Amino acid sequence: MWRYLLPLVLLVGFIGVFWHGLHSDPSRVPSPLIGKHVPAFTLPALKQPSKTVSNKEFNGQISLLNVWATWCFECKAEHPTLVQFSKRHNVPLYGLDYRDNRGKALAWLKKAGNPYDKVAFDATGAVAINWGVYGAPETYLIDSHGIIRHKYIGPLTPQQIKNDLMPRIAKLRAEQ
Amino acid sequence: MKTVSLILALLLMAANAWAIDTNHLPTPALQARYETLTHQFRCLVCQDEDIYTSNADLAVQLRDKVRDMLVAGKTNQQIIDYMVDRYGNFVLYKPPVEGNTLLLWFGPFALLLIALGGVAWIVKRRSAMTTDDPTERATP
Predict the structure, then answer these.
(1) Do B119 and B128 touch, CB atoms closer than 8 A?
(2) What's the mean pLDDT when you consider all of chain B?
(3) In this model, does residue B12 exceed pLDDT 70?
(4) In this complex, do A32 and B88 lie within 8 Å of one another by their Cβ atoms?
(5) Is the peptide bond before A155 cis (omega within 30 degrees of 0)?
(6) What is the pTM of this model?
(7) Nearest-neighbour CA in chain A from B49: distance (Å)
(8) ipTM associated with this complex
């Protein structure tokens, strides 16, 4: 009996492991920042360099931080979804534009619409490194205590917003 | 044969040329630490390369960060912690032994044990079938 059963059990086990491996995306690396306070930063605003955007923005409200740049192809693909999101939902959306050209970034927002409440301009990318950014676009969900609760790597889709992001926000609101 | 070895030798030399790294540390000791460290970190955009070898923007940035931290007198552990705090254990080619890496570290040995056990079991059964002489039995 065992003679036939054991190889079968092993085979099913292997298929299970490999199946899982095939369907998990190795480019989605879990962030160690989840459950931690947002990294401190103070950066010039994209529109008015004399003004600053800092980590203080994330205190007292549930908000999102979207990391983007005009050289980032996928960010541009994601952009219309963010514009829709900002029109439909009353959730503050901040932008972190990194290693970009200010003129190009402003021209892009003028052309494609600006979904952001404020955009921080990170010319060197130093702040992006502190946030553990490695594959823009990335979107962080931050609770009212300024703690990072979730991170999306890659472009957000309307389905993701509806089925994943909004339920998470509802849950955070219920926590308060 | 000589031509082949010549080509191979040239290829080996070329391998060094692939890493376009412009960083030079002030002392040989720092340079050695720099090279060891940058070989330990995975480039997250091009996951099968370390940040020493990769020419991706992020790798260049992280190499510069390692250089700056070394020059500023940070220890290797401080630099490793800095990377892990931001990118998680995934940034390390040799992640620490923890709950979620147990399978990674010991899985292959477990599989080897299972396979050896299977072979031993089969050999034992076969030899029991073909011979009754205990001295000829294969020991597992």
Answers:
(1) no
(2) 79
(3) no
(4) yes
(5) no
(6) 0.74
(7) 13
(8) 0.73
Distance, CA of B136 to CA of B62 (rounded, Å): 62
pLDDT attached to residue B17:
47
Q: Which segments of chain B are extended strands (E)?
A: none
Over chain A (176 residues), what is each successive 10-residue block's mean pLDDT? Answer: 82 88 72 86 90 89 93 92 91 92 91 92 90 89 91 91 91 85
A138-142 and A148-153 strand pairing:
antiparallel
Buried b (16+ CB within 10 A) or exposed e, B102-133: eeeeeeeeeeeeeeeeeeeeeeeeebeeeeee
Q: Which two tokens stand for residue B118?
A: 């299977």
Interface with chain B: mutation pick from A11, A17, A29, highest number of B CBs within 10 Å: A29
Are residues A57 and A172 in contact, defined by beta-carbon separation less than 8 angstroms? Answer: no
> Is the CB of B120 inside 8 Å of chain A's CB atoms?
no
User: Measured between alpha carbons, how far is A107 from A62 in angstroms, rounded to an integer?
Assistant: 29
The DSSP call for residue A90 is -
Give the distance from CA B92 to its chain's centroid.
9
Indicate which of A100, A129, A151 best probes the interface with B, i.e. most B CBs within 10 Å of its own CB: A129
